[in-house]
Design a protein that fits this description.
eight-stranded mixed beta sheet, 2,3-Dihydroxybiphenyl 1,2-Dioxygenase, domain 1, alpha+beta, about 35% strand
């Protein structure tokens, strides 16, 4: 496995527009992109700090879909995503070491092919791996 690289830190917010104003006001960070993922009920903004991307996530509705089942309802820092070259090869390696993938993954996420691991198999930390597009 290559040297670990943090791809992004995901944060659940109550109001995406309010959170975007906060990050612009405090840190002069503007969104690199805002993406509506209607199929999973999410609105996501990506902010590019110099050393890591910040992913601000707002639930668009109250439905109980894969996003809410995976990330839960708690606001604040939610998950840490590590970039990998090959999600499937990494999944195999991690599963051999005891990490259990959440049902429904891997799948396309806002940054590319992603997989989340069951927190009960990863020291109660929600971890994601991400194979970036292109």
């Amino acid at each position: 496995m290559n040297e670990p690289y943090v791809d992004h830190i995901g944060m659940i917010v109550h109001d995406l527009d309010e959170a975007l104003r906060l990050f612009e006001n405090l840190f002069d960070l503007k969104p690199a992109r805002v993406l509506d993922m209607d199929e999973v009920g999410l609105r996501i903004a990506t902010l590019k700090a110099s050393n890591v991307d910040l992913e601000l996530i707002q639930y668009m509705d109250q439905r109980e879909g894969i996003a809410r089942r995976t990330m839960g309802d708690r606001k604040g820092i939610n998950h840490v995503s590590f970039r990998v070259k090959d999600v499937f090869a990494s999944l195999e390696q991690f599963q051999q070491k005891g990490a259990e993938v959440i049902d429904g993954f891997p799948r396309q996420g806002s940054h590319g092919l992603v997989a989340f691991f069951r927190p009960e198999s990863t020291a109660q930390i929600l971890l994601e791996i991400c194979e970036r597009k292109g």
